[in-house]
Amino acid sequence: MRSRVEITLVRAPEAPRRARRFVGGICLGWQVGVLAGDAELVASELVENTLRHTESMPKLSLELRRGELTIAVADDSPHRAYVRADGHPGGFGMVLIEQTARDWGCTPSDSGGKTVWARLMP
């Protein structure tokens, strides 16, 4: 069985908090509450990165397929997401995602932007 949902968030300081609430509610509804905390963290960091590094409105999507939860945020920027090297100044969002998720990646979109995604399993 596959479930999918998407929301576009307004570019505002409360967007990461709204993403966390949205993800938490979806996880409970899909009966994967065990993943809610990690999923909320991942979604919040991905949304925060979109706000910090692009001019886009974050498009957050969740997909549950065969027990695997994918959290993705799409934006209009062509610049790929990456984990900063040790000692490089800046945030630790992608480091947290790399440590939390089973795997993650950055996929270019046909429109010239990208989608950054992360997968979680119970």
Question: Which properties best describe this structure?
Answer:
single chain; 122 residues; 34% helix; alpha+beta; 5-stranded antiparallel β-sheet; 3 helices
Instruction: Encode the helix/strand succession as letters.
Output: EHHEEHEE
Sequence stretches where pLDDT stays below 50 over 5 or more residues: none
Mean of residue pLDDT values: 92
Q: How much β-strand is present in the residues? A: 25-35%
Physical arrangement of strands within the biggest beta sheet: 1-2-3-5-4
**Most strands sheet:** 5 strands, antiparallel
Strands, count = 5
Percent helix, as a range, is: 25-40%
Give the N-terminus to C-terminus distance in angstroms.
16 Å
Q: What is the 3D shape?
A: globular
- Return Rg in Å: 14 Å
Helix vs. strand class: alpha+beta
Number of helices: 3
Can you tell me about this structure?
By secondary structure, the protein is α+β, with helices and mostly antiparallel strands. It has 3 helices and 5 strands. Helix 2 (36-53) packs antiparallel against helix 3 (93-100).
Offer a concise description of the structure:
With 122 residues, the protein is an alpha+beta fold. The protein is 34% helix and 29% strand.
Annotate the secondary structure layout.
Elements: E1 2-8, H1 15-29, H2 36-53, E2 59-65, E3 68-75, H3 93-100, E4 103-108, E5 114-120
Antiparallel strand pairs: 1-2, 2-3, 3-5, 4-5
Helix pairs in contact: 1-2, 2-3
